[in-house]
Amino acid sequence: MINKLHSKTFCSLVKIPEWNYPVEKAEIILCGIPLENTPTIRPGAKFGTFVRLAYIGVESYFPDLDIDVLSDAKVCDLGDIYVPLGDSNLAIKTITKVIKNLKKQNKKAKILVIGGDHTISYPVVKALRPKSVISFDTHLDIHPEWLGVKYTHTSWSRWIKEEFGCELFFVGIGSYEKESWNYIKMNNIPII
């Protein structure tokens, strides 16, 4: 099933070649989601998946753990999900479907995603349905919408709370808007 899914869904411009464990047996499944539909200040979030290039030349053996994270880890790097740009709803449907399919293929694996803008958090949570989510960011991303669009990088945390009942925890918040502050206080959302 993954071969059929992979050929239509993933592009492999950037992957870590050593992380080629079979999807069905992997402990961690890594996929990039280069989504950037609603930038606020400057574009570029779609290039976040290129962080994989930082592994080049990295010494990957940790003697205290006796593990080489590139060759010993049971990781499958699938490359980047092909995400339709310009249509947030279609992008969310695509991401949700791909993550659900990956989880069906390997229920025990941890799925790790690299963005893309924060909008990707909504479909990943929608697919996996965790009980709680910890956000490490300087912003709450809890607006009801952004420029008339409901699901964006500025609103994902509100909708995972309201639609899926996820318990939210925020770490590192550096600035607030009054409406957002009132929302988190009204909903007893902790900020650390």
Automatic annotation (TrEMBL):
Annotated family: Belongs to the arginase family.
Native organism: Candidatus Thermodesulfobacterium syntrophicum
Keyword NAD attached: no
Protein's UniProt name: Arginase/agmatinase family enzyme
Record-linked PROSITE patterns: ARGINASE_2
Keywords, ordered alphabetically: Hydrolase, Metal-binding
A biological process from GO: putrescine biosynthetic process from arginine, via agmatine
Origin superkingdom: Bacteria
Gene Ontology molecular function: agmatinase activity; metal ion binding
Classification via SUPFAM superfamilies: Arginase/deacetylase (SSF52768)
